[in-house]
Amino acid sequence: MAGENQANDPQTTPLTPEEFIRELRALRARLPMPEAAVTPAALRRRLTHVDARFVEASVNALGTSDSVQTALGRSDEDVRKEIDVIMRWSAGIDEMRELTQHAQTANTIRRQRVGLTALQTYQICQQLARDDGHARLRPHIAEMKRLNKFGRSRRRSAPPDSAPPEAGGEEQSKSKPQ
After folding, report:
1. CA-CA distance, 110 to 105, in Å (whole number)?
2. Tens digits of residue pLDDT in 61-100
3. Hey, which of 34, 42, 56, 63 would disulfide with 76, CB 3.0 to 4.6 Å?
4. CA distance between the termini of the chain
């Protein structure tokens, strides 16, 4: 019974790639985007890395002066709330990094499993093709052998006329008067 409930629970049912993408896009659409600071792009990059202790000291100064608050149009409490939101979103970003790593690991495992199956298929086909009853496998084996980068190294012969001209080749001698 517990297995049946788990299979019908949308929280534990594995997602298809298409469902995963649809849910990520829906989640992205719901993310709040604050209004960007009206500054040149180069300065915005630097603003991201202002020392946290400097920020804390400036918030403390902001809280002590109504004139500074009026000039900025923000209170110290407003800035403290935004700092808190930054920290909470940082935790969400960390979770997204873990999600990305988890998805990449899962896909690597899938690639490894498919690669192993392909190499095993090649080996089994080679063994079966020895028998004339499985001759239809021989063209497939030839193609797999041609494409197999794990097999023996093969020397590639350069096609004729593909060698680059030498520095003192014919083209240069034609343009020089003799």
Report:
1. 9
2. 999 999 999 999 999 999 999 999 999 999 999 999 999 9
3. 63
4. 96
